[in-house]
Task: structure prediction
Amino acid sequence: MRPLLLKLDQVEFTDEQFYQLCCNHDELRFERSPQGDLIIMPPVGGDSGNREAELTIDLGVWNRQTGLGYVFSSSTIFRLPNGASRSPDVAWVQRERYLGLTPDERRKFPPIVPDFLIELRSATDSLEMLRRKMQEYQEVGVRLGWLINPQQQQVEIYRLQEPVEIRDFPADVSGEDVLPGFQLRIGDWTPERVSSCHD
Result:
């Protein structure tokens, strides 16, 4: 199953209308492109869901030890300055930046660019689409991003104003100066069987 893209050339959602749409259909996972197109994200399989959870736990353990910021799951939608509304698989925002938002901004979809994020490619994800999304994150100011690609046994590292670095599995990736002391070992993750929700 691939994401469903609804081109809304004649409809312009305000941020509040998009928020209400997501609240009224909380069984679905939405994103919004910079052009205002509505993207309905498919659910992931067990392997991808487990890996995503493990990545969130690893980052969460580090964050509890350091207290430097806030960790967010894939259910969180961030309102980006280019007009997009995106929900990375894992995200982190520096403490002072997040607390600089108003209580209402934190309660709804935070209008803030994550400092760090991870996108994990599932068996049915388009690599080209994910790379475009990572470049979009880079352009709006995400300081460090990892695109983990089990299908090709690689991790792509995106840094501000730098070329993409690609490492083969197994790979050690560092949080660098964004997440000081955070280190992740990505082993030989084999791609899960490609399946749809209708198998």
